[in-house]
Design goal:
Elements: E1 3-8, H1 13-21, E2 26-31, H2 44-51, E3 55-58, H3 72-92, E4 97-102, H4 125-140, E5 144-149, E6 152-153, H5 160-168, E7 173-177, E8 181-182, E9 185-186, H6 187-202, E10 211-214, E11 221-222, H7 223-236, E12 243-247, H8 267-273, H9 280-293
Helix pairs in contact: 1-6, 2-3, 3-4, 5-7, 7-9
């Protein structure tokens, strides 16, 4: 069946990856400001009505983790109120909604991959705003799939891969936190998973297809591990590289606290929708190559 997917936040990493995917049988309508702005809820319903989608993917978000500590009102306006308005508009169109969320809803005290039934306890304002958005979406639209992600990267946008490559252009050594663990996720791989989920939701979905899900994959890494892999991939292509000096999170204070452990268990999503990401190193190669090609 042909599928019309409206995706919000057209310039974000995942939204751009969805546009680059060119999935067979899928018409993707990318909606961006000013036509659709989660901070301006009155723009959302008209934009979605005009798109006439079978499925809505809400990929737009306030993602400035540190800035959110001093800008909580804006973070909640987008991540909670905006998400609620998107869910209400999708419900009015009888279109299932895929809402993207984050591992930052957890405090990171667990030492085994987080499952959907683990109680959330965000450490920072960004995580709190995304958790509020999850609850707003669940309350506004029964036909939702909330998909939590972690450590997203791409050849474009603001992300760890591009930051490390930029720093390596002028530094021989870079201090990187080694006691925070997660799972890097390539936006291109996330996009493929979201298309598969959207196809299921637009088909003949059952109860198992809706609810809360963690997107999982293979492997895990510290930020320092991640940086070393970035530099190895870059050096292999003649790009910038640097030594990694492993430090603790306490040695690199930031306005927003980060969870020490944020690996997500994707078994429920894999069982319901048949999607699982490959080893994180595979996606990293493409992000590094693309970033180098575009000049970082």
């Amino acid at each position: 069946m042909s599928l019309r997917i409206a995706v919000t936040g057209a310039q974000g990493q995942v939204a751009r990856a969805l546009q680059d995917l060119h999935a067979e049988g899928v018409t993707l309508i990318a909606l961006a400001r000013p036509d659709l702005d989660l901070a301006e809820p009155q723009t959302i319903a008209p934009a979605l009505r005009a798109a006439a989608p079978n499925v809505v993917i809400n990929a737009a978000a306030y993602t400035a983790v540190d800035k959110a500590e001093s800008d909580k009102e804006a973070a909640f306006a987008v991540n909670e109120a905006g998400a609620r308005a998107a869910a209400e508009a999708a419900a009015a169109l009888d279109a299932p909604l895929i809402q993207l969320s984050t591992d930052y809803v957890f405090d990171g005290r667990k030492r085994a991959p987080y499952v959907e039934t683990d109680p959330p306890c965000p450490l920072n304002a960004y995580g709190a705003s995304k958790l509020a958005g999850e609850r707003a979406v669940a309350g506004a639209h029964p036909r939702h799939a909330i998909v939590r992600l972690s450590w997203v990267h791409a050849p474009y946008g603001a992300n760890f891969v591009r930051t490390m490559l930029r720093l390596a252009e002028t530094r021989e050594e870079i201090a990187v936190v080694a006691d925070q663990i997660g799972r890097p996720m390539a936006a291109a791989h996330i996009a493929g998973a979201l298309i598969a989920i959207a196809r299921n939701l637009a088909g003949a979905p059952g109860a198992r297809h809706f609810g809360m899900f963690h997107l999982g994959g293979d492997g895990q890494a510290s930020w320092a591990d991640f940086a070393e892999a970035i530099f190895a991939a870059s050096a292999a292509r003649g790009g910038p590289s640097a030594r990694v000096r492993r430090i603790t999170a306490a040695e690199y204070p930031t306005p927003a606290a980060r969870p020490a452990f944020g690996v997500l268990d994707g078994a429920r999503l894999e069982a319901a929708h048949g999607v699982r990401l490959p080893d994180w190193r595979i996606g990293l190669e493409a992000s590094v190559a693309g970033a180098l090609q575009s000049g970082g």
